[in-house]
Sequence to fold (511 residues):
Amino acid sequence: MVDLLLNTVAFQDQRTTAYRVYRLSIPLCAALLLPAIAQETRNIDPLIVTATGSAESLENLPQTIRSYDEEEILESAPRNFTDFFRDQSLGELQDYGPGHANFFLRGASTAGLGQSWSDGSEVSVLINGRPSGTANMGKISLTGLEKIEILRGPNSVLYGSSALGGVINLITKDGRSFQDTELTSLYSSFSRFSENVETGGKQGAFDYYLQLGGTVAGNYKTGRGSSGEQPNTDYKQASTTISLGYDLNDLHRIAFLFRNDGIYDAGHPGVFYSLSDYDDRYSNSAEFTYTGRTQDNRFRWSDKLYLLRDTEEFHRSQPRLIGLVPAITAPALIGTPGIASDINKRDLTEWGNRFSIEMDFTETNTLTLGSDFRYSELENSRERIALPGYLGGFIGLPVTLPPLSIDDRTVTTGFFFQDSQRFFDDKLNLRAGLRYDHIDQTALPTQNSAVVKSSRDEDVLVYQAGATYNPIDWLTLRGNVGTGFLSANTTQLFGTVSQANGFTFLNNPDL
Fold:
């Protein structure tokens, strides 16, 4: 008899890859039967939570969704979601260094004012179904995650603004899904070294999961053609996950999660190619969740209270003005001093509550009702220090500039419902939903700007409908139609901001 640990990739189609891990004690002669064991995993259909707000079989969903489990996420050892997005060919990617990436799903972009800020993104990035505070996947680590679900197309009925073009939902581990202790070390090209330790378990009604990870990476080195080291492409990355859960009884559960993600000293090419520009981008969030159900499971509900703080800090100096562009636009500036320091800091603080309840009115009909409340405050600052002798600047920019976004306060109240009706032994599934949001936005006076307090209210109504039909086991027909929306942020409405390369974003209160 021998012990074998068999990790099988059971199958792969256009939707997902399914895995099972077996620990077997078998005679060696029985190894010939292993292909038959792997064959049993072929009919796994993953459960998806992003499309409906609760776990449901993929075959019943009318929308296009990709789901990736932990083994698939870590298979290529990606440094962050940007690498994973590229490896899986999930869409178009614009990579601006280790700490910043914009990406596109079916033409919908995360590039709000070019920075992948959550209030300007057309793709909603979530953690466990609630806002993450950012759409910049370059700073999000993939450690501590159980699953990633990517939904293409509008889903504003469930998730409101920014779910115009799709949803990316990062689902974290807890002590129920991970009951082990693992230490992972990775050393790879470009002097990249990563360490990650995680432990989880369940003792009676209590479960826990703890994770701590970090990465240090050096500069990239290129191959033939332009071989050599690319300066200022190094970075440091860190992540922390703390998950605690307690089952009050068989019907009720409470859980707490703390999550930290950050990328630090991340080299950035800058306005011109810079050897000194770098970014610090990090976020901290906490959530408290209560879930419950009735004894007969006909009514199920969830309430999630969350708090997050997302920080973007750019350290981007402006070197001496040498080059072709200054020679054409302002020859007198060639060789003149530049900006010794340009520090732009953006702090987003947000808290909110999401409540939903599912009701099975009949064996074939399920109604979901829910509400969303979000309150956010945005604070900005910018400090520029000129080198001695700096008089004007590239394309006439002064030393004093406003931040890259303006201070604001936003309050969003939303209500939604979604109904699902199944026919013909669940072969036909029809869905429809509606959402109403009231958004109250206030621009606040901002450092070095002429912005005055200005407000705007907005009411938005969106709908969605879809159907799936399984006439035979191996064939599923899907159809979906829906509307989505992206609420213009206060910088787009009320603030005119300038970047150090001369680009200026003009406000339009009629957006």
In short: Residues 81-87 form the longest helix (7 residues). The first strand starts at residue 2 and ends at 12. Residues 384 and 399 are 6 Å apart (CA to CA). The chain has six helices and 29 strands.
